[in-house]
Every structure is written in structure tokens, then in C-alpha cells.
């Protein structure tokens, strides 16, 4: 019943622990950011006409709001031919699945 590990396995475990320690330190300093999604992900937005719209994440913007920071999701605004700017979306108004957006829309309507 003695468990044995190779030298490379032990070195791998040590590397993971060093990285975890670094991330924990960043988190304790308040400088580790967990993004709600990735660039290129499809997100779902409830539009002005209560219709669910799809958009592709193009980037993120971080803003200071009084005593906290908030992450905004950037989605491109396009006309028929070219990108003409960006729209910033608060995390609260963006959904990662169509099902989440539909559930929110049902709650808004009722």
C-alpha cells in the first residue's frame, strides 16, 4: 500500500501549487479578475423590443463605480457593411445561454 510518484509528477504538483499560491495572492490583493465569459463567446441580450438577440463578445471594459469596479462586455455595433462602434453591456443584462435569457424575459413579462 505505499503510494509512489515519479520525480516529474512531483515537480508537476509543485508547479501547480506555486501557481495556485500566486493566484491566491492576487485574489487577496483584489487584483484577480474573473471574467464572465471569453472573447469570441456568443452571448444573449434582451433587446428593446423584448426580443432575445445574439452577440459575439469582442472585449471587456473595467469601470470604477463609486466604491467598486464593474466589468462591462463590449459587443460590436455594425451597420450592413462595417463595424461602427461598440456597445457596453453590464454583466447583469447579458446571458450566457438562450435559456437564461428566455427565463429572465418570462420573469420580466409576468
Q: How are the SSEs ordered, and which strands pair?
A:
Layout: H1 7-29, E1 42-46, E2 52-56, E3 59-65, E4 68-78, E5 83-90, E6 94-95, H2 98-109
Antiparallel strand pairs: 1-2, 1-6, 3-4, 4-5
What keywords describe this structure?
110 residues, alpha+beta, 3-stranded antiparallel sheet, 2 helices
How would you describe what is shown here?
This protein has 110 residues and is α+β, with helices and mostly antiparallel strands. Helices cover 32% and strands 35% of the residues. It is built from two helices and six strands, in the order αββββββα. It has helices spanning 7-29, 98-109, and strands at 42-46, 52-56, 59-65, 68-78, 83-90, 94-95. The strands form two sheets. A three-stranded antiparallel β-sheet has the order 2-1-6, covered by helices on one side. The chain has a three-stranded antiparallel β-sheet with strand order 3-4-5, with no helix packed on it. Strand 1 (42-46) and strand 2 form a beta hairpin. The longest helix is centred in the N-terminal third of the chain and has 23 residues, at 7-29. The termini are far apart. 5% of the residues are buried. The mean pLDDT is 84.
